[in-house]
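Support request, please re-run this one:
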Amino acid sequence: AFKDCAKLRTVFTGLKHIKNSAFAGCASIPSASVSKAEYIGESAFAGCSSLSNDIFIIAENVRNFTFSGCSSIPSVYIGKRVKNIGRKAFFECGKMEELTFGENNELEIGTAAFMGCCELTDVTVRGKIIGEEAFSCYGMDTLYDSRLKKLTIDHSVKTIKDKAFYRCWRIETINLGDSVETIGFAAFYRI
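Re-run finished. Output below.
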């Protein structure tokens, strides 16, 4: 719809369906409300580097690359109805300081979903599966300087896949839920 409108500064609020790449590359958008969106397409806001408001998500799926490269988002709330966070959905949201997951036993977090979200310091992860490199601090020949110090894996989590927290070297405390059945290769390497 507005893909690559680099000077666009206004986004419509209250949208219920946001299609693939709808606002991708709109680098000047300062805020966008997705709190009523039941569908948010792949790469919908990818590259919206000026997007600097809190994000509240109720859509069942956060598709691949949805907010990838939105480097100014300060906080994200993942609602309890969200079932899937796609690959690199929040990749390199470098100023995200707060990430909150609603009570949710079915959530699956995709590959590298939060890779490069370096300002997180205390995270409680909920859901069923934490995907490969989901919070990894190393990828594509880039070493991110993670600030993550305290990590809680909720009792709902069953699987932590390969390299999920790879090179999150500042972690001092890990509270691991008692329902974890599988921890993948190098899931907590170099912490």
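The chain is about 0% helix and 25% strand. The chain has a mean pLDDT of 92.
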